[in-house]
Specification:
Layout (H helix, E strand, L loop, with lengths): L25 E3 L8 E4 L8 H14 L1 E4 L6 H11 L1 E2 L16 E4 L30 E9 L5 E6 H7 L2 H7 L3 E4 L16 H11 L3 E4 L1 E3 L6 E3 L6 E4 L4 H15 L5 E5 L5 E5 L3 E5 L8 E9 L12 E2 L2
Parallel strand pairs: 2-3
Antiparallel strand pairs: 1-2, 3-14, 4-16, 5-16, 6-14, 6-16, 7-13, 7-15, 8-9, 8-12, 9-17, 10-11
The structure holds (3~{R})-3-(2-hydroxy-2-oxoethylamino)butanoic acid (7UC) and fe (iii) ion.
């Protein structure tokens, strides 16, 4: 398909298959106000530069992309991520796949009798690496074991949310900077035994100091504005007292998380999800009780700034 920007696509009818083109992708576009273009049966093992450009355009335009019919080995999966950008190595090694540090493992299933990765990651609204000065532009998730009947990742379109904000909340976010922190989501590791909660918070807080980002970011490719805030990591508002900031954020995030804003993308072991962490926030569904769940995530840097309207993050002491 033609990778050039075309805003009319956003309102294209669903299930419109693109005819065979030089990049030959079979794509289903989402309905208006929905995220998620579906790319059918891409040969992810032999992706061409034209296909990569088309995938980038689809993920920037439609915020989420689903690749159907995938059956990739770990090395093929990493190679696919490398074709799309630069794979991330997550900053905490306890999340790494034992043979492939690029793969962030979310799993409750031991591998060769040993715990691998972390169980139950990201079960709160967030954007990946929101708490760092350079957040993660794109994330891919490849479910290996689905973990029950109705497993999914849920998304909120933060471009749409920003456009629809009621006037009082729009005034709150205009020219504001929000503070983000990871330490409240820290997962205890075996090395933490015998440490106090205070010690753990201090140590992890020193590793991941509070950062501030503009509350509204401008997308580097689409030049659209998105609201950059989440219940998971956003903890305050620059220039407000902690209490004032928390109260204002809680009102904003209650609006953001309204049922009508939430879209679900079901998990299948033959589907890879790819999303734009600038334009959506996401939340992982809880695993059914006793069900085995494993997913392989790869974060991808696209070589572009996270937002272009402001010079960048501020790291607070
Ligand atoms: O265990 C988790 O929920 C992981 C989270 C603290 N960070 C994921 C990320 O990339 O921001
Ligand atoms: Fe996440």
């Amino acid at each position: 398909m033609n990778p050039s920007p075309d805003s009319s696509r956003a309102s294209a009818p669903p299930e419109r298959a693109t005819p065979s083109t030089p990049v030959s992708l079979h794509v289903e576009l989402p309905e208006a106000r929905r995220v998620g273009a579906v790319i059918h049966d891409l040969d992810a093992r032999a992706v061409t530069p034209g296909q990569v450009a088309a995938i980038h355009e689809l993920v920037y335009e439609h915020k989420v992309v689903v690749f159907t019919g995938q059956e990739l080995s770990n090395t093929e999966y990493i190679a696919f991520a490398r074709a799309l950008g630069e794979p991330q190595i997550y900053f905490q090694p306890n999340y790494h796949h034992p043979d492939h540090p690029e793969i962030f493992v979310s799993s409750n299933v031991p591998m060769n009798g040993k715990k691998v990765g972390v169980a139950g990651t990201g079960r709160y609204w967030h954007s990946d690496y929101q708490f760092f000065a350079e957040p993660l532009p794109m994330t891919m998730v490849y479910p290996q074991e689905v973990g029950g009947e109705q497993r999914s990742t849920s998304y909120i379109d933060m471009v749409q949310v920003l456009a629809d904000l009621p006037p009082d909340l729009a005034a709150l976010v205009r020219d504001a900077r929000f503070l983000h922190e990871a330490k409240w989501r820290y997962k205890i590791t075996p090395e933490d035994i015998d440490k106090s909660i205070t010690e753990i918070l201090e140590e992890f807080g020193a590793l991941t100091p509070t950062v501030s980002h503009p509350a509204v970011g401008r997308h580097p490719v689409k030049a659209r504005d998105y609201l950059y805030a989440s219940r998971g990591f956003t903890v305050g508002i620059e220039g407000m007292s902690p209490e004032e900031g928390r109260a204002a954020l809680s009102e904003l995030l209650d609006w953001v998380e309204r049922e009508e804003h939430v879209q679900h993308q079901p998990w299948r072991t033959d589907r890879i999800l790819l999303w734009d962490n600038r334009q959506v926030i996401h939340c992982a569904a809880v695993t059914d009780l006793g069900a085995r769940s494993t997913s392989y995530r790869i974060g991808v840097y696209d070589g572009r700034p996270f937002y272009t309207n402001e010079p960048g993050a501020r790291v607070l002491a």
